[in-house]
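Hi support team,

I'm opening this ticket because the web form for multi-chain structure prediction keeps timing out on my end. I have pasted the exact lines I submitted so you can reproduce it. The total is 889 residues across three entries, so I didn't expect it to be a heavy job. Is there a limit I'm missing, or should I split the entries? Thanks in advance, R.K.
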Amino acid sequence: MSFVEISRLAKHYGDNRIFHDIDIQVQQGEWVTLLGPSGCGKSTLLRCIAGLTDVDNGHIRVEGEDITHTAPQKRGIGMVFQSYALFPNMTVAQNIAFGLKMQRCAPEEMKDRVADVIGLVELKGKEAHYPHELSGGQRQRVALARALVVEPRILLLDEPLSALDARIRKHLREQLREIQTRLHLTTIFVTHDQEEAMTLSDRIFVMNHGKIVQQGTAEAVYTQPASEFVARFMGSCNLLDAEQSQRLFGRAIDGHLAIRPEAIRLIRPQQDSSDTLPGIVMRHQLLGNVIRYEVESRGSVLWVDRLNRGADELMPSGMQVQLHVKNEDLREVH
Amino acid sequence: MQAKTWHRCMVTGLGGLLAIPVVATLLYSLSSEWGATLLPDGLTFGWYVQLWHDPRFLTAFGHSLAICLGTLFLSTVVIVPAVFVTFYRFPGLNRLMNVLILMPFAIPPVVSSVGMLQLYADGPLPLIGTPWVLIGCYFTIVLPFIYRALANSLGGMNLRDLMDAAHLLGATTPRAFLSVILPSLKPGLMASLFLSFSFLLGEFVFANMLVGTRYETLQVYLYNVRQTSGHFTSAVVMSYFLFTLALTWLAARLGKIGSQ
Amino acid sequence: MQSTLTTSETLPPARTASRWRPRHASAALALVPFITLLALFCLAPIAWVLIHGIKTDSGIGLEHFGEILSSPFYRQAFGNSLRISLESSALALLITLPGAASLARVPGRLRDIAIAFTNMTSNLAGVPLAFAFIIILGTNGAITLLLRRWGLVDDPQLYSSRGLILIYSYFQIPLGLLLLYPAFSTLDDDWKHAAALLGARPGQYWLRIALPVLSPAVFGTFILLFANAMGAYASAYALTTGNINLVTVRIASLVSGDIFLEPDMAAALSVMLMGLLILVTAVNQWLLKRTNRAS
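Hello R.K., no limit was hit. The queue was backed up. Here is the completed structure from your submission:
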């Protein structure tokens, strides 16, 4: 039996279905991400798991225990909010100690545990500061420390990094994952950023319009999208309709053909031209370490990504090229 | 949804509590007799009829209206340019202004009256007993409300940029003020004027101490006829209360139209 | 960012407003009527009061204050005013706290109507309010009769300080609501949720987080209510025809009315009252600054 079992969870608000038919299993120590666009219901789902909102249908079980209707105080769940929700009238140390105070922890033990977790999130020296004196990244770490110090059995994270600068976000992302691994803490993470989801998660649950549309490892969801929505959402994707698919690859399909830009190889025309498509480079975009080419082939425009290996390897506009795609990289999606 | 209903009940309960004196006065004004019983003995409009035919009441009401409207007119004409000039030309004065407009709040009307009675009884400015002293005092009463409303409006718009744009297009400063700034000030100004009006109608202290019966206003009249029937006085109260209600409703409507 | 401009090329400092610039003279004219009215009807009377409070027959002195403090009559006036103001403000605050908490939580339409309604009822303040309370709680008032029938009270003392406390509380409530409910809107729901997940019951959340965060606003409101009550005159006067011993009533009776007129004493009393109010307003402003710093 899984550590966390969510079965047939559903919630609606009047006529509006927030989410339905939610089935999620999480193993102990696993990092699982709920990924989806804004409004897909992922944050509400997280709050229901925490017990902050009630559900209309279904069950939530943790370690075999049914907590669907248990008060949030008693679920043993820690949560980091998107807005951090630090108590403004308390210092960093008092914020972190709050949960221990509620558990009537002995003052000596409390001091030690708070000091330990402050060291863990690298906030030594900030104990006597107030939230309004801290930067965004520091506040996030206080929120994390506050949730961790009470040793919850599950950690919930509601888009904790979305309010931060890109650089800090990357750094904190790594720190977060490292702490989670060290503590072997079962974690459910919510985000709309697929890059974040892919770098952090053991498994991803992709949500859309209140339903889980695909679940699996980052690798699986990325290379084998189950639907057009997932293909589009998880990074850029070429999507060919039935007519284009027939024209370019001779494949009769029912839906769309998804091809990742990096799966298309560009070859100069000198090489063996069987099993390839002819194409002309139209323009290119410099994305940093990747160059994205727009290549026209047989009336369709395809994105092709290549690593940026310097100016002498750049293919100029108007250049004739040949495109090659492996069969297994042609994914049919509906 | 237990919390939601609690909050609704709390708010309506509070409203009900506050409504009790109003309802009681209304009932009293409509009852022909209300002795030592829980509810009135009979209902009648007679008191209102009597009231609205009473020349003393009508005079007092007229006096109140005249003074209030006079005050509001004077205040608008004096305060609006002053606030604009402060914000535009002398922004450093803002802090001083904020302190100045606090003063009428910190000084109770009785205290002001002490000084006024001594200063303006005779001598160069014999204002006591005339409506002019009331208009002056009422000006200081409404000053905080009107100033605040105008300051909020002016603070919210990009005054300097608007004036600069108008200047570049050929307008003089007064012209720019009238055509560009003043229209945006209207909603806030009107709201504060209506609020002030209802406030002034209920003013008693200055009216009684500085003018009394020499220019009897509504509240002074109300106090002076207290020995007559309580039904009668209740009718007075309800009359001007309903008048204020109509005004406030009008202000709300105008406010909605203004914001559209 | 390093500036590459040399000193001679740097821009002149931004124009600071100076009221002595000749081109702004016309603008200054707009301020003249404003200042004149303010001076005549606000500053001058206060100045008179301040000067005459410390003026005695033999020049400047604090004799009046000594007289006031040694007179049991005046001491009672201050005692009554303080007691009634404190108790009515406390009562109003007790009612307003949960009221404002709920007001911040109800949907916008109900809130707008509620606020408009409380504004309307505050139009009753002063003389009409006293009369209304006489109708309800006077000797033959409706509620008096109810209370008598239920054997609760024989004669509710409307015409005493208890009655005044009730009346004052009534007109304090709309003011309190208006001042407090914006503060409640600043309470972040997520604080409540975070506290719950950390094991706090709702009561503990209110005690340890919400009330401390609100306390400057609550205290500031109490102070404003108190100042408002100290300066109130009309309701008390109308209820008791000036027979109750309050500071404001005393001041008024010393400058108008039938007995000896002693404007200088009135001035001294006024100075003491004003001193108290200014102290109280200053504390409020300081508290406001503190809340602004913390947020």
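A quick check on our side: Chains A and B do not touch (no CB pair under 8 Å). Let us know if the file doesn't open in your viewer.
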